[in-house]
Amino acid sequence: MGDLLRQLAHLFVQTVPTVIFVFFLLVILDRLFFRPILEVLKRREEATAGALSRAHEVAAASETKSREYDASFKTARQEVYRQRETDRRAAMAEREERLHKARAAADASLKAALADLTAQAGTARQELSIKTQALGQEIAESILSEAAPSGREGRA
Question: What angle do CA 146, 150, 156 make, to 5 degrees?
């Protein structure tokens, strides 16, 4: 048993420098390799999380702007429709006014033409009446003048 303990002690003494070397290597690797890598990974994670949160913010802002754009577009479209309707009503009112004026002018022209025609008809009737009387008198004189000489001859 003593021999076994001595061999174990000898192995332990031989492994102490290896253990110290491995521990020293672990400390060096931790400080020179693992910590910088972990720091880089941590920064990368923070940058990714920050970029992701900024992307969410930008997406929310763009959604808000999109809603505002849609609302303003809808308002502008409604304004255009209102303006078109106003213009259409104004054009219809102007058309009705022009039609009314044209009808009034046509009625006035018709009345003037009827008055002129009535005046011409009255003048024509007067002329016809005068000519009829003159013609009647000529016919009467003609008949009387033909009848008068023969009637005198029969008396004589």
Answer: 150
In angstroms, what CA-CA distances link 47 with 53, 54, 58, 61, 70? 10, 10, 16, 20, 34
Q: What is the pLDDT of residues 106-127, one digit of tens each?
A: 999 999 999 999 999 999 999 9
Question: Six-digit token pair at 102?
Answer: 């044209």
CA–CA gap between residue 130 and residue 133 (Å, rounded): 5
Give the distance, in angstroms, between the CA of residue 103 and the centroid of all CA atoms in the same chain. 36
DSSP 32: I
Average pLDDT value for residue range 16-20? 89
Q: 78, 150, 146, 109: which is closest to 138 by C-alpha?
A: 146
